């Protein structure tokens, strides 16, 4: 059986004292094995990155960017293959994989602007004949640890920017769907990246713990679930590393009585069930303000959901595919069971859908649950499946309080025609990414992505302008050439 291995110093290897099954979630069959890197293998990758750093650091930013231009072209040329690799191991439908890849490529495009982004700041004559400037120097070896749900896009949030900033990189992708990530890394190598600048080690906690403790790793970018994000952040920072750790979510949409209900329903269907709800920005809770809005929302959602198709990744006519593993399918079904046991109403039940020809697949159908309240486990925890829960409230203030009180603060949205209400909402809601009649307010590549509260540990968001800050150290230089300026005697106080 094929073993998905590592890319270290430009060479592929399948070192594998331990391996793990990789599934095709559409069929439920094991398709490959992934090598789980040992401590020695991760150390080898770090050593390769450290060795490549001095030369890469001094490579002109324009030359570094030229590699990214070629990489972008190779990603586009190989899009069909990448989408198939994603579909086979993640389960998302090919058109959805294409959307993920496109968003990833936009981050490569932004990285191509490195020479502009790294120009720094300059002030002439901060004192008599004294100039001062700040420059942004790379950190050294940096690491990225990524989740299963965006095997192409999330790694592309990280390493293109880290690398154009002059760092070298060790990536530890999700062991559940590793093939597309590894293939993308090979494309960057093909684009002309020197050996050792990007290394990929597949693995699990054993590999991650090396990246968190090795002194040669200067910074860690993480995206995944909140308990692991918290562990990564506390361990990496305790070991003196810079860290940004993006975690889980529970994204609410407020549906106001004046909303364009047909539009809100269309938007909610895509945002709740697209990618089987396995998106950190998925809208998983609709908070309907007023009985009339709630009744209209539930009946229109129910009608819209009758035509949804769940099925294998390879059929473009399907709306969404399976969830990632059998265990995750059971977990999602368990949340639906618990909501029912807690007294909520299962309006559309997606447990155990029939998918003809794919009986072994890990499918959960689109599910709508009404009458959910804040004390229910299914409300408090992230489900990460195609499940939309409806909470009924009687005012916008109560709806906003629900959102502000929730432990997560990744994304949110309001559906309304009232500009004043929308402005009040965006101004006061305790969430990092806000949509106004936009269900998935994922920032474009030239802004930055990140949640608030327990959806992000650290200060800087992912990609965009924050990534330049995260992947560089500011150095400020103040310069005077006494021969061309004023010569001063001894001074014991700051010049004023
Ligand atoms: P996960 O936390 O299980 O895994 C993420 C990464 O951490 C993987 O590479 C995994 O190998 C590693 N890991 C897992 N357990 C570990 C441990 N005990 N010690 C060290 N490393 C460990 O997340 P997942 O299931 O792959 O992804 C889904 C989660 O990611 C969801 O919670 C989702 O909301 C979140 N997510 C967040 C964002 C965001 O931007 N905020 C984006 C995508 C996904």
Automatic annotation (TrEMBL):
CDD domains registered for this protein in UniProt: ALDH_F6_MMSDH (cd07085)
Top EC group: oxidoreductase
EC number: 1.2.1.27
Domain Aldehyde dehydrogenase: start-end pairs: 17-477
UniProt cross-references to Gene3D superfamilies, sorted A to Z: Aldehyde Dehydrogenase, Chain A, domain 1 (3.40.605.10), Aldehyde Dehydrogenase, Chain A, domain 2 (3.40.309.10)
Family annotation (InterPro entries): Ald_DH/histidinol_DH (IPR016161), Ald_DH_C (IPR016163), Ald_DH_CS_CYS (IPR016160), Ald_DH_N (IPR016162), Aldehyde_DH_dom (IPR015590), MeMal-semiAld_DH (IPR010061)
UniProt keyword Lipid biosynthesis present: no
TM regions (residue ranges): none
Keywords from the named record: NAD, Oxidoreductase
NCBIfam families, sorted: MMSDH
This protein's name: methylmalonate-semialdehyde dehydrogenase (CoA acylating)
Species this chain originates from: Marinomonas phaeophyticola
């Amino acid at each position: 059986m094929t073993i998905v291995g590592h890319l270290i110093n430009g060479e592929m290897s399948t070192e594998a004292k331990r391996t793990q099954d990789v599934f095709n979630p559409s069929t439920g069959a094991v398709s490959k094995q992934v090598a789980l890197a040992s401590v020695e293998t991760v150390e080898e990758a770090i050593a390769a990155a450290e060795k490549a750093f001095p030369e890469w650091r001094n490579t002109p930013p324009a030359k570094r960017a030229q590699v990214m231009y070629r990489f972008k072209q190779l990603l586009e040329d190989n899009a069909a293959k990448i989408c198939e690799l994603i579909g086979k191991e993640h389960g998302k439908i090919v058109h959805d994989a294409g959307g993920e890849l496109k968003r990833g490529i936009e981050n490569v495009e932004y990285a191509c602007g490195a020479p502009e982004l790294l120009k720094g700041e300059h002030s002439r004559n901060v004192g008599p004949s004294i100039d001062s400037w700040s420059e942004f120097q790379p950190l050294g070896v940096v690491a990225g640890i990524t989740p299963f749900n965006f095997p192409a896009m999330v790694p592309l949030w990280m390493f293109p920017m880290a690398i154009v900033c002059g760092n070298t990189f060790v990536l530890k992708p999700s062991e559940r769907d590793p093939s597309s990530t590894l293939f993308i890394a090979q494309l960057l190598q093909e684009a002309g990246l020197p050996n050792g600048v990007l290394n990929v080690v597949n693995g699990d906690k054993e590999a991650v713990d090396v990246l968190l403790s090795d002194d040669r790793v200067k910074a860690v970018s993480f995206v995944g679930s909140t308990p692991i994000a918290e562990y990564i952040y506390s361990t990496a920072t305790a070991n003196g590393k810079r860290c940004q750790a993006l975690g889980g979510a529970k994204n609410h949409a407020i549906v106001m009585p004046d909303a364009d209900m047909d539009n809100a329903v269309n938007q909610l269907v895509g945002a709740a069930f697209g990618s089987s709800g396995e998106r950190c920005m998925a809208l998983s809770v609709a908070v309907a303000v007023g009985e009339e809005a709630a009744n209209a929302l539930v009946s229109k959602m129910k009608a819209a959901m009758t035509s949804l198709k769940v099925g294998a990744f390879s059929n473009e006519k399907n709306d969404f595919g399976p969830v990632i593993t059998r265990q995750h399918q059971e977990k999602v079904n368990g949340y639906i069971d618990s909501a029912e046991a807690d007294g909520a109403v299962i309006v559309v039940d997606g447990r155990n859908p029939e998918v003809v020809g794919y009986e072994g697949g890990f499918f959960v159908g689109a599910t709508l649950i009404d009458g959910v309240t804040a004390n229910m486990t299914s409300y408090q925890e992230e489900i990460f499946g195609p499940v939309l829960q409806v909470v009924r409230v009687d005012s916008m203030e109560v709806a906003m309080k629900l959102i502000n009180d929730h432990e997560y603060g990744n994304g949110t949205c309001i559906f309304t025609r009232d500009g004043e209400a929308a402005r009040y909402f965006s101004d006061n809601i305790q969430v990092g990414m806000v949509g106004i009649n936009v269900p998935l307010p994922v920032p474009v590549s030239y802004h930055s992505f990140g949640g608030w509260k327990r959806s992000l540990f650290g200060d800087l968001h992912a990609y965009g302008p924050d990534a330049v800050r995260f992947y560089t150290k500011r150095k400020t230089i103040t310069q005077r050439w006494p021969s061309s300026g004023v010569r001063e005697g001894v001074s014991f106080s700051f010049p004023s």
